[in-house]
Amino acid sequence: MLRPMSRVVFALALLAPPAAAAAAPQNAAPQVRPPVQERPAPAPPAQAPPAPKTEPPAPPPARAPGQLVNVRVEFTITDQQGSQAPVKKTVSLMLADREKGMIRSQTATPYGMVQLNVDAEVMIPANEKDKIVAQVGMSYDLVDRSQEEPRQGPTQIRQSLRTVLEDGKPLVISESADPITDRKVVVEVKATILR
Length: 195
Description:
single chain, 195 residues, mainly beta, four-stranded antiparallel sheet, 2 helices
């Protein structure tokens, strides 16, 4: 009968906390924790200054409508070399007011590729009845027709200019010279308003 009872006492002794740990000493100083230093809050990230407000670019001014008339533009090219009879070529095109157009002509010859191109843009000023502002251009290749065997390629003439023409009156706009021969080319332009 004594043995089982001693086992119970022993088991209770194991479960009970030690006396030294259970009772804190009376004169022990209380433990003081060091104050916790609070870290300053991080500064907010630097923000870029707001972009200045820019207004959208103004749209280009609307193009004024042209008058409801056509303008016939005629190019007369006079090509003369030495004492030979001049050769004349005429190119014409029909344009509405404030419009542009072009003609392209190109031919392969024993002298090489030659071309005759013209460009024109016309505008009738609102306060004028018989004046035409014209932007004209020409590309013309010259070949020496007197050569039996071509010794050089064609001479090229390129022109572009803006001029004021009178209704129905021709105007010489350029005189060009061949840099090698005594050949010269005269260009005359006439614009006629078809009312």
